[in-house]
Amino acid sequence: MSEQFTDRLWRKVQPIWEAYLDHPFVKGIGDGTLNKEKFKHYMKQDYVYLIEYSRVFAIGSAKAPDLETMTMFANLLHGTLTMEMELHREYAAKFGITNEELEATEPSSTMTAYTSYMLNVSQLGGVENAIAAVLACAWSYNYIGKELVKWPGAADHEFYGNWVRMYSSEDFTEIAENCKNLINEYATGKLERELQALEDIVVKTSKFEYMFWEMAENIEMWPTDKIQSTVG
Ligand SMILES: Cc1ncc(CN)c(N)n1
């Protein structure tokens, strides 16, 4: 079988994604030792992240040149709003957070930077930019889920097991595979400089993913929060 665009992307992002598996937050989910306050912060930030991420699917759907691609994006959008975000709503309920409070989460600097970047690149260019913007998100979470599920006890953990099962599940794998298939389809026949631009989006979003794990681990909001201010 000839090389796919995702094979080339994998070679670029592999070192960054391997660092996710070594990250204390991700390891804490896998071995069940993660501090719950850190997870609560992550889950709230991730919920508002997923709202913006869903908009990227909506942009992809609007830019789609054919009904098949439009349907693919619509299904990815639906899967995120229902299956994936339901996981967050369930965790929020365990923390005594209502859906309304969850949706009203104040975004951190990292979450704002990451989603602003994704939304910006997906508004520019064609439908392939929207696919590139979400690819690392879907694929890397599935990569992490499939690794963590191999850790003894990870899938059965009384608190973090749901997270591990969800991101390693067949349904989530299908989401990741659909994103990979879309980028491979749209990369076909593109010029090298166009492929380079798509690769750059996938590498940058992979770096943002790492920053997101850092934000969660350190319970970060905005670095300027340390400054006494009356502005708010
Ligand atoms: C930050 C982030 N990136 C990716 C995913 C997987 N959709 C997520 N839930 N959150």
Secondary structure layout:
Elements (H helix, E strand, L loop, with lengths): L4 H17 L2 H8 L4 H28 L3 H28 L4 H5 L5 H15 L3 H22 L12 H8 L1 H18 L4 H26 L15
Helix pairs in contact: 1-10, 3-4, 3-6, 3-7, 3-10, 4-9, 6-7, 6-10, 7-8, 7-9, 7-10
Give a description of the structure.
The protein is mainly α. 75% of the residues lie in helices and 0% in strands. The longest helix has 28 residues, at 36-63. The chain is globular, with a radius of gyration of 18 Å. The model has no long low-confidence stretch (mean pLDDT 97).
Query: What is the overall number of helices?
Result: 10
Molecular shape: globular
The helix-and-strand class reads mainly alpha
Distance between the termini: 57 Å
Bound molecules: 5-(aminomethyl)-2-methylpyrimidin-4-amine
What is the CATH class designation? Mainly Alpha
Which ranges are low-confidence, i.e. pLDDT below 50, for 5 or more consecutive residues?
none
Encode the helix/strand succession as letters.
HHHHHHHHHH
Q: Total domains, how many?
A: 1
Total number of beta strands = 0
Rg is 18 Å
Mean pLDDT value: 97
Function: Catalyzes an amino-pyrimidine hydrolysis reaction at the C5' of the pyrimidine moiety of thiamine compounds, a reaction that is part of a thiamine salvage pathway.
EC number: 3.5.99.2
Family: Belongs to the TenA family.
Pfam family, one: TENA_THI-4
